[in-house]
Amino acid sequence: MTILVTGGAGFIGANFVHSWLGSHSETLINLDKLTYAGNLANLTGLETDPRYQFIHGDIADRALVSNLLTTHQPTAVLNFAAESHVDRSIQSPGAFIQTNIVGVFNLLEEVRGYWQGLAELARDQFRFLQISTDEVYGTLTPTDPAFSETTPYRPNSPYAASKAAADHLVRAYHHTYGLPTLTTNCSNNYGPYQYPEKLIPLLLLNALAGKPLPIYGNGTNIRDWLYVTDHCEAIQVVLAQGRVGETYNIGGNNEKTNLEVVHTLCDLLAEIKPRDYQALIQFVPDRPGHDLRYAIDATKITQELGWWPRMTFEQGLRATVGWYLEHPHWVDSIISGEYQHWVATQYQGQS
Ligand code: NAD
Ligand code: TYD
Questions:
Q1: Domain-embedded: residue 166
Q2: Is residue 178 part of a domain?
Q3: Residue 349 — pLDDT band, cuts 50, 70, 90?
Q4: Domain CATH number, residue 57
Q5: Which residue among the candidates 32, 58, 83, 134 is catalytic per the annotation?
Q6: Residue 275 DSSP symbol
Q7: Listed residue (348, 246, 345) closest to 303, CA to CA
Q8: How far is the CA of 148 from the centre of ligand 1 (A)?
Q9: Is the pLDDT of residue 286 over 90?
Q10: Is-catalytic flag, 134?
Q11: pLDDT over 70 percentage in the chain
């Protein structure tokens, strides 16, 4: 038994690879393009594991994907690969269209051909799992009910629109060809190995370095935060027990304003390494089209599949801070090079 994971050198993918290999005997093939967000240091320790193989390549490369499918005969393909940062999608949307739409189309085409050639039992058992986001649903007012699986798609950023397009393709491949697909739409993740362009690791590393903590607009935007290992568990549950053709929302039941996030983080850091971190908070110009609020109604996955988040926000944040403090070499290798270029472009003149 083998599974093919794409994007397994990124934040969530790497956490998933570790948790999968920690609890399964199947072989795992990891196909990753190693963009700025992909990092083999996220997979340290697995190089000598006979159940693990890394392939450097693009999900849009049909010949490569075809060859991998034929050679390894996976029972499931889990697609984590994506361009994933909203601010980058605002600056340069082209890469999002290429990977999140064209890449997913090419991957689906090759998977369809492979799946159609399988024997009947293997066809029935095969799964294609698309890892998606709650951002496809657009934005909520403070009093709207949370997103459910039947909320209409209303993506607002190029990132969200590209993920929505991919989800629609996955849906169509199930309805048209019968491909046994599953889709998960998850809220904001945080935890080990997250590239520090995203809010929590950005604030954490800036705070430790005594740099400004940039908060877009007035800081009242709300996200529903989920610790990454809870997301990985949910994916495993959906893969094992999810109903074919269905989508499952995954969330942390942890709605926080960005101000609450930064204040909680500053208080936590002050306990560990005393200093006035709150004084570093700096309000900066808002993100264009900034979605006000995301919130997930995870009733379906809880009731059907028995999953719920284990970590509270306070526990998860403490674990995250601990991980970053214990991995200075990982941090140093990330914050040199491309990351400096991104920070200079995105936060130009603001610090
Ligand atoms: P990430 O940016 O940290 O990692 C993405 C990975 O995909 C990287 O390793 C990168 O090298 C790889 N990749 C990019 N383009 C590729 C291509 N064309 N072919 C092969 N590999 C490619 O992203 P993440 O935060 O780990 O997110 C993983 C998935 O989860 C994405 O699909 C994202 O949309 C989704 N998601 C993320 C969050 C979140 O809060 N981070 C929440 C919900 C859903
Ligand atoms: P982010 O981590 O980029 O995730 P997403 O945009 O996909 O939700 O941002 C989370 C929230 O934090 C979002 O409301 C934007 C805000 N934010 C800031 O206020 N400052 C920052 O420097 C960043 C990166 C994000």
A1: yes
A2: yes
A3: low
A4: 3.40.50.720
A5: 134
A6: S
A7: 246
A8: 23
A9: yes
A10: yes
A11: 99
